[in-house]
Write a structure and sequence with these properties.
By secondary structure, this protein is α+β, with helices and mostly antiparallel strands. The chain folds into 2 domains: 78 residues, Phosphorylase Kinase, domain 1, CATH 3.30.200; 178 residues, Aminoglycoside 3'-phosphotransferase, Chain: A, domain 2 (Alpha-Beta Complex). The protein is built from 12 helices and 11 strands.
């Protein structure tokens, strides 16, 4: 099946006109389109994707802190066109701390309470099930920490679930988040993945002092607990290694992040 074949159903259903070549990612197929004279992005999720709640989450956000969903089903979403650039460009320009403050402000907007959240959002307990099943050695200790974090969560709110610098783009409405997973749980978790990014800049990401400074900026600007962000980052790193292994990929890059996070936790 060609990329366009999987998109054509929605192109026809929503009366869209392709405006560029389609793009294929691990989780979805996308194409820039013309929708009633305006640019938009059509995103169709692959069956195995973990982004089937994207449309529900973005429709619920209604543009507050995130790109707008113009039309949405569980399988496809028509997105407001946001040209960028991504927030990672600021980091490449040497403005890492400024980028962290912007990221924190976007997350704070995403965490503003709105009525009637979607009932289909995936629980963190389910997302971390592969890690919670581990019982031996260091893995068992991280699994126990995960269980403790889940058990001590004071506020369960809808989460983006994949916040990082390349998932925040600039627009005429300011900085907006894209590509949410659509989860529900501890708001601290939404900052965990940020600590590993930008993923294509490992020399910066794991340079001396960067991890500690970044988590301090995020905690200061969001009001979240610094240690709890780090603990969720540790658990996220370990479950990410499991996901990589399940997908037939090398888990070592994720495993390599455990030691610096543990050192920062102290």
């Amino acid at each position: 099946m060609t990329v366009f074949n999987s998109l054509n159903k929605w192109i026809r259903a929503w009366s869209l006109t392709p405006a560029d070549e389609p793009i294929e990612t691990v989780t979805s197929r996308l194409v820039k389109v013309d929708a009633d004279g305006k640019s938009a992005f059509l995103k169709v999720h692959k069956p195995e994707s973990d982004e089937h709640e994207t449309g529900a989450y973005l429709s619920w956000r209604d543009g507050e802190g995130a790109v707008r969903a113009l039309k949405a089903t569980r399988d496809a979403v028509l997105l407001e066109f946001v040209p960028g650039p991504p927030l990672s460009d600021l980091v490449r320009d040497g403005r890492d701390e400024e980028a962290a403050a912007i990221l924190a402000s976007v997350v704070s907007k995403l965490h503003v309470t709105r009525p009637d959240p979607p009932e289909t959002l995936r629980r963190l307990e389910d997302r971390f099930a592969p890690l919670l099943a581990l019982t031996e050695g260091p893995d068992g200790e991280i699994a126990a920490l995960t269980a403790d974090l889940l058990g001590t969560t004071r506020q369960h709110i809808p989460l983006h679930g994949d916040i990082h610098h390349d998932n925040i783009l600039h627009s005429d409405r300011g900085w907006l988040a894209i590509d949410p997973k659509g989860l529900i749980g501890d708001p601290h978790y939404d900052l965990a993945n940020t600590l590993f990014n930008p993923i294509d800049m490992p020399e910066l990401v794991w340079s001396a002092g960067r991890l500690g400074n970044l988590v301090s900026v995020l905690a200061e600007h969001t009001g979240h607990d610094r240690r709890r962000i780090l603990e969720w980052a540790l658990c996220h790193a370990r479950v990410s290694a499991i996901w990589l292994e399940q997908d037939g990929m090398d888990p070592q890059p994720a495993l390599n992040t455990l030691a610096p996070i543990l050192a920062e936790i102290g």
